[in-house]
Specification:
This protein is mostly beta strands. It has 4 helices and 19 strands.
Length: about 375
């Protein structure tokens, strides 16, 4: 009897250990609210919008301990529209991420599948959009800080962190199904994290990328291009950012440069950003910042403020206000809102003026 009890106890313990070494976690973000925009194609508009401060998503995170510091890992992540219940990308269930790989405490990790570049990993942490979301991202999110570039057929390596430094590289094989374009993609990243100081850098080069300037950012890119979607021969991104924490105040600086090669034209969209995050109380976060973007004669300026109050560790309510001004031929178009095709020789001639204001209140729950 004692032997039977001992055997049962040992089996139970072994089962518990095996279960602890392998896990699959369900996670997600749900964001909903109401937005007011003063200038959408020349008219003001109230809208019930979702996924504005953070895109709605749910996913599975899996890990299996293989022993010796080696683990098998995977992520399957879906983006969806809360107000309609539809997939963010039609007919693609895991449209944000879908990858599997091996992680070693000694050698780093290798993953294969649909993945992000290193702007998402290393530079989004310095952007206003990390807190305020949709209306504070840079023009068109051509620098991928909002995570709109989902790279298919990608092989990705990230090193272990040594003395606060982490490096990585990505190669995506050419495919007609590649979200960012049809050609190959190469990306590199570097991150440094040491106490109050954080530094990040990223580089991405994309061949044959589809872009829609008027809808994404209120621009035709170059004066001789029509206000229609274009296939860029190449889009090359470079960015660097840093932050420093002093008490309850976090100061962040960011620079990104996106170089477009479209037909016989080429030019760079450069963005300079500074913002401040302040923890007023353990539950209350304030943020304010400014960025300036330039592409040829076109200019964009964005000023954003946010107040966020945490009702719990999982649920918060927030309010944001953003002022966007465009000049030099560009239109004041917020990411995801769309733009007018009223351009003549690359100059915006639509109504509504050169600026737009976006105000939003909402709530978010994480699980």
């Amino acid at each position: 009897m004692k032997k039977s009890l001992l055997c049962a106890a040992m089996l139970a313990a072994a089962s518990s250990v095996a279960h602890a070494q392998s896990s699959v976690t369900l996670y997600g973000i749900i964001d909903a609210g109401v937005s007011y925009l003063s200038n959408v194609g020349g008219h003001s508009q109230f809208m019930a919008s979702d996924g504005s401060i953070q895109s709605n998503r749910w996913g599975f995170l899996g890990k299996e301990d293989l022993g010796g510091g080696l683990s098998a890992i995977f992520v399957l992540e879906n983006g969806f529209n809360l107000n309609s219940g539809s997939l963010f990308q039609s007919d693609v269930i895991f449209n944000r991420q879908a990858w599997v790989g091996l992680a070693s405490t000694r050698y780093g990790r290798v993953t294969l599948g649909k993945q992000y570049d290193f702007f998402w990993d290393n530079l989004t942490q310095f952007a206003m959009g990390q807190y305020a979301g949709q209306y504070s991202w840079h023009p068109g999110d051509f620098d991928h800080l909002a995570g709109t570039l989902h790279i298919n057929n990608a092989a990705r390596y990230v090193s272990p962190t040594i003395a606060g430094v982490t490096v990585g590289g990505l190669y995506a094989f050419p495919s007609q199904a590649t979200s960012g374009g049809t050609g190959r993609i190469i990306a590199f990243g570097l991150r440094y994290d040491n106490g109050p100081l954080k530094i990040g850098a990223a580089y991405t080069d994309i061949h044959d990328m589809g872009v829609n300037g008027p809808v994404q950012a209120g621009t035709t890119f170059f004066p001789n291009l029509p206000p229609t979607p274009q296939l860029a021969n190449g889009v090359t991104n470079f960015g660097a950012g840093a932050s420093y924490q002093i008490g309850r105040s976090l100061t962040r600086l960011l620079f990104t440069s996106t170089h477009f090669r479209i037909r016989n034209d080429n030019g760079s969209l450069n963005t300079y950003e500074a913002n401040e995050v302040f923890s007023l109380t353990p539950a209350t976060t304030l943020m304010a910042g400014y960025w300036y973007s330039k592409l040829g004669s076109q200019h964009w300026q964005n000023v954003t403020a946010l107040a966020d109050y945490a009702l719990s560790k999982r649920t918060d309510v927030y309010a944001t206000a953003t002022y966007l001004r465009a000049s030099g031929g560009a239109a004041p178009v917020f990411l995801g809102i769309g733009g007018s095709n009223a351009f003549v020789d690359g100059v915006y001639v639509g109504g509504g003026g050169a600026s737009s204001v976006a105000v939003r209140i909402g709530m978010r729950q994480k699980f």
